[in-house]
Amino acid sequence: MADTVPWRPKAGEIPTDPGVYRWRDESGRVLYVGKAKNLRARLSNYFAPLPTLHERTRRMVLTARSVEWTTVGSEIEALQLEYTWIKEFDPPFNVKFRDDKSYPYMAITMADEAPRVMVTRNRKIKGAKYFGPYPKIWAVHDTIDLMIKVFPIRTCSDSSYKRAMQTGKPCFPGQIGKCGGPCSQRVSIEEHRALVEEFVRFMNSYDRRVITELRQRMGASADAMQYEQAAKFRDQVEALEAVLEKSAVVLRDSVDIDLFGIAEDELAAAVQLFSVRGGRIRGVRGWVVDKELDISTGELVEQIVQGVYADNELTPAAVAEEPPREVVVPTMPEDAEALQQWLSERRGGRGTKLSTAQRGDRAGLARTAAQNAAQALMLYKTKRSADYTTRSAALADIQEALGMTEAPLRMECYDISHLQGTNVVASMVVFEDGLPRKDQYRRYTIAETTDDTDSMYQVLTRRLARLDEDADLPDVPDVTSAEVVEGSKPSKRFAYRPQLLIVDGGQPQVQAAKRALDEAGVRDIALVGIAKRLEELWLPDDDFPVIMPRNSEALFLIQRIRDEAHRFAITHQRTRRKRDVRSRLSEIPGLGPSRVNALLKHFGSVARLREATADEISEVNGVGPATAAAVVTKLRQTPTSAPATSAASPTSAPDAETDPADETDAAPVPGGPVRVPEVTHDGPQLPS
After folding, report:
1. Global pTM value
2. Which of 412, 442, 358 has the alpha carbon at shortest distance from 561?
3. Which helix (H) or strand (E) holds 628?
4. Is residue 413 very low, low, confident or very high in pLDDT (cuts 50, 70, 90)?
5. Which residues lie below 8 Å from residue 440, measured CB to CB, with a gap of 6+?
6. Which of 215, 384, 568, 664 ranks highest by number of CB atoms within 10 Å?
7. Residue 412, exposed/middle/buried by CB under 10 A (0-12, 13-18, 19+)?
8. Which candidate, 148, 382, 379, places its Cα nearest to that of 272?
């Protein structure tokens, strides 16, 4: 392989000014659009020796036949030109926005003679005032139903309004009390316009002074013994209170921000946008971004923010919006100042601050947004592999990419996990027809090992030793008969031989697994490794990996299998870690199982217990100062709890092998289930 492409321009030909560059293939199609503060420095990274490039960057460079650039006067101009070209050319190597739904909004048609409140997904109604987006359409309807009890404005269609004004007969919604416009024959156009302005003012600010005024009117009506009028004001107060209760108060009343939460892996990113106005979440929306090249989180943030606030979106479902006073992102992009200036221009020059959430309520809201994004990413990946047609196509693509003679109907994936070189464990997960078979998952404990590859070799050796077990299925009773079938054979551990073994890792792990296959004399099972950093597939004895398209269903399926194996290994690792801590604590005189449970329950986790002082531990009922001091000493002698990893570091652990047949997976995702905020009328109800 040549060091670089032969058509590389000379370094002296590339300017050092800021600008935007385009990569083109032999037919002239634009492959990728990017920007740079220094064009020469940025493009020289692409023309580095090909073996040093990221696999997908290398594929883009090898596909291209030319690169062209345009210099600009400033970074903000580069930002604008880059986005313009992305919209114009839709390059295949730039990120792709996916949004499988449009979001409902509440709209008030302020340009009409008698403004109307309505539910719509169209953000291009001339002169309309919008509120939202709402997570569900019923949330908009419920809010409107509550609001028109206080501000009875028009809800009927334009045709009904026109017919009613021409005939002098109230529209049908007005006859049943669902429309308060002039067409109901109860208010004039001027009086209705005043009601609409009050409606908009309350929705803009959620001003509680409106409720205070209604309470005062209610009290005055009651004092004047106008009880029917007082009851009307009471119902209006209750309606507005219900609207406020359905909108989570998360920040101060003066805070207007858009907060982005992002969860990403090597192939995709899920985005959650919380719109906070007046300290309350007024809207929430989420979408998925497909990544083709390996880009940093800062670059991803920049493209996502541009996609939300630009004039024309990359996807029809997204809608350009005016930025608020502050936009909160998880990571600041490299060109943060230019992006902030661009946002300020989008806001009419009034200024928009770009920031990250460091502490306090904003940091808590950012964590919630990130949790929702992580849940959305997991669901997105799961849904892509849930459809039968999609799974079948993915299995066929895997067969073709790996050169297999048949589709891998049964796949087994193996992952090694350890805690700073101790407690080495492994997991085996099974997928049949593209779906997990959790009843056939297995956990392995590795007693002695030298490194990660040796651990993989041991696990595969133990698995292949049982490959030829009797796999006959047990006798199944005839469900159409009342007779009881006795003497049914118990089911075996493994139903049938896998067609494909997947190991988490690159060439070293694949070679270790191949050694186990060779020693077992197995020739009819395919083997592949998936390297997490680049999401590339390594076959035995191949010098270069197999690169699958980033958006292919086959790669998503293999990635999901790998992630499931990793999750299952980490779950086993954490269980063993907790069991080890319990056993060490039980060695302390006077500290039995009940007091160990009391300690863990009091502090909530092993990590918090390790951080506690002797005085804090002695506050637990039944634990004295001497025992508390012994607990601190014992925990300091125990290896610190750190995240279990899959790194190929030297490992050793004096534990016995465990491989029970009934160890099936019923554990949640590591760290417990992600709490998804309760969806209410104005967005997610955040935990207090």
Report:
1. 0.47
2. 412
3. helix 625-637
4. very high
5. 430, 493, 494, 495, 664
6. 568
7. buried
8. 379
The length of the chain in residues reads 688
- The rounded distance, in Å, linking the Cα atoms of 119 and 198 is 19
Cα separation of 574 and 385, whole Å? 28
Residue by residue, DSSP assigns 280-349 as EEEEEEEEEEE--S---HHHHHHHHHHHHHSSS-SSTT-------SEEE-SS--TTHHHHHHHHHHHTTT
Residue bearing the bigger pLDDT, 418 or 645: 418
Nearest to 283 by CA among 106, 99, 134, 101: 134
**Residue 456 has which token pair?**
């993989």
User: Between these two residues, 573 and 643, which has the higher pLDDT value?
Assistant: 573
Task: Round to whole Å and give the CA distance between 359 and 31.
Answer: 41
pLDDT of residue 531 exceeding 90: no
pLDDT at 516: 92
Instruction: State the Cα–Cα distance between residues 305 and 319, nearest whole angstrom.
Output: 12
CA dist., res. 537 & res. 460, Å (int): 19
- The closest of 295, 284, 299 to 369, measured between CA atoms, is 284
Q: Tens digit of pLDDT for each residue in 454-509?
A: 889 998 998 888 876 644 444 444 333 333 334 334 445 555 789 999 998 888 89
Distance CA 440, CA 431 (A): 9
Rounded Cα distance between 196 and 85, Å, is 42
**Spatial distance between the Cα atoms of 252 and 1, rounded to a whole number of angstroms:** 60
Residue 88 has a CB neighbour count (10 Å cut-off) of 11
The predicted model gives 547-575 an average pLDDT of 80
Measured between alpha carbons, how far is 313 from 633 in angstroms, rounded to an integer?
60
**Structure tokens belonging to residue 282:** 């007024």
Q: CA 530 to CA 298: how far, in whole Å? A: 26
Task: Give backbone dihedrals phi and psi of 347, rounded to 5 degrees, phi first.
Answer: -95, 15
- Residues 6 or more apart in contact with residue 81 via CB below 8 angstroms: 20, 35, 70, 72
Compute CA distances 561 → 388, 481, 514, whole Å.
Answer: 16, 40, 20
